[in-house]
Amino acid sequence: MKILAIETSCDETAAAIVEDGTCVLSSVIATSKHSFEASGGVIPEEAARKQVECIVPVLNQALKDAKLDRKNIDAIAATRGPGLSGSLLVGTTAARVVTSLWKKPLIGVHHTLGHLSSTWLDSPETPEFPILTLSASGGHSDLWYRTNHTKGTFLGRTLDDAAGEAFDKGASLLGLSYPGGPAIQKAGESGNIDAFPFPLPLHDTDTLDFSFSGLKTSLKYTIRDLPKQDPAPMLEDLSASYEHAICRHLVDRLVKAIKRHDDVIEVHIVGGVSANTRLRNMVNSTCNNYIVRFPQTIAYCTDNAAMIAAAGHFLFSEMGDDAFAPFQTKASLPLSDVIQN
Ligand code: KG4
Ligand code: ZN
C-alpha cells in the first residue's frame, strides 16, 4: 500500500510517499525555520503564508522523486493536529482537494502518532512490541507503553514546557539562534557538563510526568548571577550543563517507566529532541538491556511527512476502513483516546 502524506503542523511543508509504512519512496521537506532564527520562535502567520506557497511544489516533488503518478497512490494521509491552526489548515485543505480530485481515501493522523511511527521508516528490522516510547519535541514530551500501533498506555506528559521548548527558550537566554536544540548541542559540544549545577525535576515523586520550566528558570538565574551577566565567556560550559540537565531528566523518567514494565522488549526515542547526541549516548548506555531505536535519520526525528504516511498505514492495518473517515473518527485521535474507546 502506497500512501502520499502531508505534514504542515508547524513551520515545515512536507510531503512523502511511503510503501507499507516502512519503505520511504520520497520525502520532501521545505522549511521556513531560517526566517525565525532572529525572532527566537515561529511566527504563525508567516509560517502559514510560506506553506501556501510551498505546498503544491512540495507535493509535485514528492511524486517526481518517487517516480510515481496519482494512479499508483492508494490513499492520502494528513496531519490533522495538534499544531498551528493556520498551518494545519494549509495541509488539510490540500489533502481534501487531492483526495477529492484523485478519488482516494483520506486518513487524518494525530501528529504524535506520526512521531511514534517514525522508528519504522527504513528500519532494517521490524520493531517488536511491547515498546516503551519517549516522544520529545517542541510541542510535547510524552511517555508511552505500547502493545501495538493503536493500543497502549499513556504514562506521562510534561506539566509545563516541552523538552524542545526548554532547548528553544534556553537558547534564547544564551543568545543562541532558533531552533535551540541544535544550537545548544553545537555550543556545548566540548563544554563541561558539571560546570553549573541544575536540578533534577520531579525525581523524588511517584509520577512519570516531566517538568522543564524549573530548569529554564534555573538557567535564567545562573546567567543573572554571572559576572557582568554575559553568558558568552561561559557559553560552552553553560550549554553543556543545561543540555545535560534536560537529557538527564528525560532519561530519569524513562528508566523509572521501564522499571514498571518488565515485559518491555524495545525502547524508542522519537521527536525532534531524539536528534540530540548527548541524549542518544545517555539512553544507549542506560538502557543497554533493551533494543534501543531512534529514527533512522535526523530528518525522521524532526517533523516530516514520511512518519505521517507510516502512521496512516498502521492505522489502516489495525483499524481497517475505520481509518478512512477523515479527521473525525477515533482513527485520527491520539492513542489515549483510542484506548479509552
Ligand atoms: O518534532 P519537531 O520537529 O517539531 C515539533 O513537533 O515540535 O521538534 C522540534 C524541536 C525543537 O524544539 C528543536 O529545538 C528540537 O526539536 N531539536 C533538538 C535537536 N534538534 C531539534 N533538541 C535537541 N537537540 C537537537 N539536536
Ligand atoms: Zn513534531
Helix content: 25-40%
- Taking all Cα atoms into account, the compactness measure Rg is 20 Å
Look at the helices and sheets and give the structural class: alpha/beta
What would CATH call the class of the largest domain?
A: Alpha Beta
* Sheet of most strands: 5 strands, mixed
Write the CATH architecture name of the largest domain: 2-Layer Sandwich
Ligand list: 5'-O-[(R)-(carboxyoxy)(hydroxy)phosphoryl]adenosine, zinc ion
**The number of domains:** 2
Q: In CATH, what is the homologous superfamily of the largest domain?
A: ATPase, nucleotide binding domain
Q: Quick check: average pLDDT? A: 92
Proportion in β-strands: 15-25%
Shape: globular
Order of strands across the biggest sheet?
A: 3-2-1-4-5
Q: End-to-end span in angstroms?
A: 27 Å
The CATH topology of the largest domain is given as Nucleotidyltransferase, domain 5
Low-pLDDT segments, ≥5 res = 326-341
Number of strands: 10
Q: Helix and strand succession?
A: EEEHEHEHEEEHHHHEHEHH
- Helical segment tally? 10
Q: How are the secondary structure elements laid out?
A:
Layout: E1 2-7, E2 12-19, E3 23-31, H1 44-66, E4 75-81, H2 85-102, E5 106-110, H3 111-117, E6 131-136, E7 141-146, E8 152-157, H4 163-174, H5 180-187, H6 213-224, H7 235-259, E9 266-270, H8 277-286, E10 291-293, H9 306-319, H10 335-340
Parallel strand pairs: 1-4, 4-5, 6-9, 9-10
Antiparallel strand pairs: 1-2, 2-3, 6-7, 7-8
Helix pairs in contact: 1-2, 3-9, 4-5, 4-6, 4-7, 5-7, 7-8
Residues 111, 115, 137, 271, 303 line the site of zinc ion.
